[in-house]
Amino acid sequence: MLAVIILAAGKGTRMKSPLPKVLHLLAGEPLIIHVLETALNLNPQKILVVVGHKAHLVREKVKAYAVELVPQKEQLGTGHAVLICQEALKDFSGAVLVLCGDVPLLSPETLKGLLSLHFREKATVTLLTAELDDPTGYGRIIRDGTGEVVKIVEEKDASSREKEVREVNAGTYVFDKDFLFRALPQLSPENVQKEYYLTDVIALAQRAGKKVVAFKTPFKEEILGINSQRELAQVENLFQQRLRAKFMAEGVSFLQPETVYLERRVRLAPGVVIYPMVSLRGKTFLAEGVVVESHCDLKDVSVGPGSKIRAGSILEGLVIPPATVWPK
């Protein structure tokens, strides 16, 4: 049995935007939707979304999904955010996966690997880690001489020696539900940020003699979180590269790939040819053999096989028949 908690209450002060952080767009969709749809791939029994800053806006974006919203009236840290989910999970028994709503690149395959390790090892806590060339900003994974995870130290609380550690916490965890909610009331805000850190549960588990294991992913870009507009742009660039690579592997030709913008719901058939400076948005579908010339912007457009879209076309909501040159 699996329940998922998605942490989405933060304001995202460093974004310097009136929008809640999780509603910023990546490939045309809010960050929270990317995380939600990844979670749904795991077939959980329950998904909880912790909301706080401008919760009504987040509620509107996720209303089409079978999720339960849990309001966090005061942002007192990640530990507090998970603790307030206790009532919603009172009748649930099993593993609890905690995800961050601002980490949109995590793949279902990575999370399945994390869960598989947790169940195989019969662990109480399993955390996702990665080794970064520049770990600045991330909590560090502290291991003992045998390689066992002892604790996670947030950067603001880390010593100079601990900051040299390059294995970092991805902010993604699997917990045994019963242990989790016994441990959370023991947390203390004795740290630089005066918050209740979910990461402190790892040290509590170790002291209680519980099994703590780590799943280190080789796909370190997957753990990238978004805390600023610069980081959002970096993740957008990675996501666009992923989309273009996927389509090229399926037989789509991009004459100058880095100049083409794609949104997540776009579908392209084999044999499509895309010229430079093209934007494909919404639920646009290009059938086999379609050619889109330069400087086009297509949103929610369906183009039939063998058609050509002339340079400079700006189209929305159209259905273009097969073997058509548009505009005629």
TrEMBL record:
As cofactor, the record names: Mg(2+)
> What is the reaction catalyzed?
alpha-D-glucosamine 1-phosphate + acetyl-CoA = N-acetyl-alpha-D-glucosamine 1-phosphate + CoA + H(+); N-acetyl-alpha-D-glucosamine 1-phosphate + UTP + H(+) = UDP-N-acetyl-alpha-D-glucosamine + diphosphate
Please indicate if the UniProt record lists Cell wall biogenesis/degradation as a keyword: yes
What UniProt keywords apply to this chain's record, in alphabetical order? Acyltransferase, Cell shape, Cell wall biogenesis/degradation, Cytoplasm, Magnesium, Metal-binding, Multifunctional enzyme, Nucleotidyltransferase, Peptidoglycan synthesis, Transferase
Q: Name one GO biological process term.
A: regulation of cell shape
Give one GO molecular function term. Answer: glucosamine-1-phosphate N-acetyltransferase activity
* Pfam short name (any one): NTP_transferase
In which pathway is this protein known to take part? Nucleotide-sugar biosynthesis; UDP-N-acetyl-alpha-D-glucosamine biosynthesis; N-acetyl-alpha-D-glucosamine 1-phosphate from alpha-D-glucosamine 6-phosphate (route II): step 2/2; Nucleotide-sugar biosynthesis; UDP-N-acetyl-alpha-D-glucosamine biosynthesis; UDP-N-acetyl-alpha-D-glucosamine from N-acetyl-alpha-D-glucosamine 1-phosphate: step 1/1
Q: Which domain of life is it from?
A: Bacteria
Residues annotated as domain Nucleotidyl transferase: 4-216
Q: What does this protein do?
A: Catalyzes the last two sequential reactions in the de novo biosynthetic pathway for UDP-N-acetylglucosamine (UDP-GlcNAc). The C-terminal domain catalyzes the transfer of acetyl group from acetyl coenzyme A to glucosamine-1-phosphate (GlcN-1-P) to produce N-acetylglucosamine-1-phosphate (GlcNAc-1-P), which is converted into UDP-GlcNAc by the transfer of uridine 5-monophosphate (from uridine 5-triphosphate), a reaction catalyzed by the N-terminal domain.
Xref: PANTHER family: BIFUNCTIONAL PROTEIN GLMU (PTHR43584:SF3), NUCLEOTIDYL TRANSFERASE (PTHR43584)
Task: Spell out the protein name for this chain.
Answer: Bifunctional N-acetylglucosamine-1-phosphate uridyltransferase/glucosamine-1-phosphate acetyltransferase
